[in-house]
Amino acid sequence: WTGAAPGLPGVVGRLAIDPQHPTIVYAARGIDGLFKSVDGAANWTSMNSGMSTWSIRALAIDPQNSSSIYALPGWTGSVFKGTESGSDWTSLSSTLPNFYPVVLAIDPQNPKTLYAGTDGNDSGEPIGGIFKSTDGGVTWSAARSGLPEVLWGVGALAIDPKSPNTILAGTTRGVFKSIDAGASWNESNIGLPGTSINALAIDPQTPGTVYASGSGRVYKSLDGGVRWGALDFPANVVAGVLAVDPQNSSIVYAGSYKGLFKSPDAGASWTASGMGLPTGLWMSAFVIDPQHPST
Length: 295
Prior knowledge:
The chain has no helices and 24 strands. By secondary structure, the chain is mainly β.
């Protein structure tokens, strides 16, 4: 690894890579807002024109029109849409409640459909959930039928790239699955110890293969999340981000508070993959170049 942060202050909480032009990368840096690189993360510039708040907590790029970007700040209920690759931002007339957004996912086949996973509201009540928009983020409605009434949060969302009506949600009460585009959810925790799930990754080539992490373990399902088995991941290492190589399903990455781990055999074994990373690095975001996945 080599450093890639000239012009980028502080700790990065979210990353997004342009699927069509992967040298373009976006980074959300807490109260400092959004930054953009056009040279593969070599240099960064601030991209906050038009934003009334810079505390960005969730970020996603339209998979079909990568010049459109969505950003959700914390506790405001606002949704910002960036056009011209983030050169300018517009606040959408949103009905997203004042919850704390954690994750944002876009339907890969119908990018006007967005899903937001949230923690509880600004009063600290345990009523986190999932919200859905079908008009590009202008209006939102709750999509939590079947989710527990008491739920501290939804920290991960993963959409099946080949069948986007199928969605997995990682929550503080385990994994829940929807097969009707979020209209209803069912618990999908066979083999999971009722643990909080903070990261999910679907194999883009074989979407029935899914990885999940929670409470110091990494789990794998071969049937779309119906049943799970624990992998031989380093003990008591909390992985906050998971990713599968888009061209080689055998390669899986897990970012943790102890840096990055890599599996060359679909999760059967893991080794530290952090040469050049700072000691004690907490890896909170990780993206793979879809065209050159060794980057």
